[in-house]
Amino acid sequence: MRVLLVEDDDLIGCGVEAGLRQAGFTVDWARDGHKAGLALDTTSYALVVLDLGLPRVSGMDLLKRIRDAGNDVPVLVLTARGTVVDRVSGLEAGADDYLGKPFDLTELTARCRALLRRAQGRSVELICYGDLTVNPAAQTAQLAGTRVPLTSREWAILLQLLTNQGIPQSRSRLEESLYGWQQEIESNAIEVHISNLRRKLGAKLIRTVRNIGYVVEKE
């Protein structure tokens, strides 16, 4: 899943980016509010991790812009402004959660996963689909109780399809979930990964929707 990190502090940004990537997220890192706004105009994100003290466009102004545009992407606010008034202002402006600096990376990733579960209408971490059990936190998949080894790309595609059951995902949408700004999109990679997933998890799991993309049917 693709996350937009908006943070102007290089030390904090590097740590958060590394932690989110380790947790299985694809991360785009914008260092000011203006660049983040441009990214949000052109890319669909599963989550935004947003600092409030940003140059050019403040985090609060960017948050209001996101909500005024009707974008309901989950937003986790990171800030050194820890007063009750600041937290209330951020939440009332449209933030979904608030984490004060300094923070622990394990708590950050746990809060990110909780926000994604809420956005996807799930109350528990595990995703069960027939004989398939997926644990997004541990990045593991089991078929009929047996663990199935998946590459990071296969894992990302599987999670994108399972969390959007019944909604066909285009090739470009799947590519968006896999590749960040600095990563080159591989030719025919989606088709290869889909083929590998079908071989490992069963041919019937992922259906091709002609001229549209791929879908996991809703259970």
UniProtKB/TrEMBL annotation:
Residues 124-218 bind DNA. It holds the Pfam family Trans_reg_C. Keywords: Cytoplasm, DNA-binding, Phosphoprotein, Transcription, Transcription regulation, Two-component regulatory system. Its main location: cytoplasm. The modification 4-aspartylphosphate is found at residue 51. Residues 124-218 form the OmpR/PhoB-type domain. One of its GO terms (cellular component) is protein-DNA complex. It is found in: Cytoplasm. PROSITE patterns: OMPR_PHOB (PS51755), RESPONSE_REGULATORY (PS50110). Residues 2-116 form the Response regulatory domain. InterPro entries: CheY-like_superfamily, OmpR/PhoB-type_DNA-bd, Sig_transdc_resp-reg_C-effctor, Sig_transdc_resp-reg_receiver, WalR-like, WH-like_DNA-bd_sf. GO terms for biological process: regulation of DNA-templated transcription. GO terms for molecular function: phosphorelay response regulator activity; transcription cis-regulatory region binding. This is Two component transcriptional regulator, winged helix family.
